[in-house]
TrEMBL record:
Name of this protein: Pantothenate kinase
Organism: Microbacterium aurantiacum
Residues of the Phosphoribulokinase/uridine kinase domain: 100-249
Keyword Nucleotide-binding: yes
Location within or outside the cell: Cytoplasm
Amino acid sequence: MGAMSTEDALASAPAPTALSLYREIARDDWARLAAGMAQPLSETELLQIRGLGDRLDLDEVKHVYLPLSRLLSLYAETTKRLGADTSEFLREPDTTTPFVVGVAGSVAVGKSTIARLLRELMSRWPGTPRVALVTTDGFLYPNEELERRGLMSRKGFPESYDRRALVSFLTDVKSGADEVRAPFYSHMQYDIVPNASITVRRPDVVIVEGLNVLQPPPAPNDVAVSELFDFSVYVDADPAHIAQWYVERFMKLRSGAFANPNSYFNVYAELDDAEAESTALGFWNSINLPNLVENVLPTRHRASLVLQKAADHTVERVLLRKL
């Protein structure tokens, strides 16, 4: 048999393994990281954290979110040490600022519950006892301003937020301000509450949760919100699954929060099952799905870590960006 040509050798060689920016960690491998970690939450505490429609149990907390909280705490502690070492090198007082974590993802994917859970879990680790949580809902323009701009039907899209105010807030946090205030948003009123605010007083960690926190800057010279994060988490799932979760949540809200006479959504409380499902799907297909496809999902690759959820809300895979 004649010698194999270079072309033949290349054709028969196995394809090289594709490189990735991320470590891909299967659920079972990630869950093993929880070995030796005590479950810090009770069932009662979990009930207070869990959002409507989220199927989150203590096993999921221990096997997925407890290791994640420890990883984030380690990142925060390491960043704090680096800040102190830098100050020592420059022969100046320690000016270390809060470690900022962004949590992004679609409406109804469970990111609010995850943000609340991480706040609780991270505060249990010795290096990060003080954790603040801020949602970007507070940086939506008031309804009056959205009406003026013709944006009420696009509430949640990037243009409906006061991005400059959010960047200014985070700049103050990362600059070491002793006290920073964020506007307060009422889901009951579906609007910003005048003269109400959330005060952040230089904690160890600030978690910022919202749809569009990983958006690139609108112009080359603008600062992206994500540039002010030390770490970011994207909560990912199949859009078909998220749609189902959205409808299920709407149906539960119909007999819950929507039934409150003071609720902005009280008009939907009397819908029958078919009308409620049709209304929810209408909102999903006309507003939330386009926003997900056009604005939210394209930012997934900007995250430090991606949690990929299965149809039952459990995390089936973790993608962690390599250092």
